[in-house]
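wait is this the right file?? whatever heres the structure
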């Protein structure tokens, strides 16, 4: 019984040399899903390299499976798929890890797979972590509009602990947000809010697809932290 043979290389902007005889699978083929995948992959702590690489491998397997037709095989099903994938930490996949992953994929698709990894993938954008100093007792959303401003003003006047207001950064509203925050700080007797600090992801790697929307930033940003009222 013969099988239909396919060979692919999952590339990140084609920076690593494509092995001979392989068709390139461009990561941008799944660009429409990147924003949702990034949200789903956010974790409370730093995302481990192996988890990011596992997602890259899953994306590559998905694309290779979709591109490989079964019609040419004798049994109308079994394919031989050779797949190389760019990852961030190829050493983590040496030995049993990649062998077990290959077996899982073969079980899922009932095909014959040969998967190998290469260096060259960029880390995915990741939202930064904010450590409030001093610690806060309440976190509230703040847009600078009437509802959120009224709530922030009310909570800021209570003799409670620190208040952390979080806002989605949009340049056209930044000035209004700052004016409202200064007024809340003055009227409540709390410390004047510091200049906003970006707690978002570092600059997007050149190989990462652009966000699907141009409205503001793709992640929230910390606006201010108030010290305990005295």
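ok assuming it is, sequence goes like this
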């Amino acid at each position: 019984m013969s099988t239909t043979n396919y060979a692919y290389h999952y590339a990140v902007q084609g920076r690593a040399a494509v092995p001979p005889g392989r068709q390139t699978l461009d990561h941008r083929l799944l660009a429409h899903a990147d924003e949702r995948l990034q949200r789903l992959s956010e974790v409370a702590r730093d995302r481990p390299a192996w988890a990011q690489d596992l997602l890259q491998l899953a994306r590559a397997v998905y694309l290779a499976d979709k591109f490989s037709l079964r019609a040419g095989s004798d049994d109308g099903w079994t394919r031989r798929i050779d797949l190389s994938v760019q990852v961030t930490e190829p050493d983590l996949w040496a030995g049993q890890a990649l062998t077990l992953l290959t077996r899982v994929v073969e079980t899922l698709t009932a095909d014959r797979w040969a998967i190998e990894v290469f260096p060259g993938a960029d880390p995915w954008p990741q939202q930064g972590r904010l450590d409030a100093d001093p610690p806060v007792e309440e976190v509230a959303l703040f847009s600078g509009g009437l509802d959120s401003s009224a709530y922030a003003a009310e909570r800021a006047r209570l003799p409670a602990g620190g208040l952390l207001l979080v806002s989605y950064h949009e340049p056209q509203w930044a000035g209004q947000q700052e004016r409202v925050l200064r007024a809340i700080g003055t009227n409540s007797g709390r410390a004047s809010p510091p200049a906003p600090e970006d707690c978002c992801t570092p600059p997007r790697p050149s190989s990462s697809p652009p966000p699907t929307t141009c409205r503001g930033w793709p992640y929230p940003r910390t606006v201010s932290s108030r010290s305990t009222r005295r």
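The chain is about 30% helix and 20% strand. so i think its the right one actually
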